[in-house]
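Notes to self, Signaling peptide TAXIMIN 1:
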Amino acid sequence: MCSGDGHCRPLGFLLGLPFALLSLLISIVGIVVWIVGLLLSCICPCCFCVTVIVELALELIKAPIHVMEWFTDQIPC
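result:
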């Protein structure tokens, strides 16, 4: 995996892989919460808390990407 400045950091990728797999499981939970939240917001669009739950679920879905970016940025070479 390469960072934005063009330097490849395979060690950061390998160290972050177990954590990314764990966050992948969390993102699957986020997908379920997102689907349930969307259904609830269709039934009752006036509920503000459902919108917050859907936004939280979207962040859970993006968790593996954030974890891998963080780990690859921590390795200097």
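- The chain has three helices and no strands.
- Residues 24-74 form one domain.
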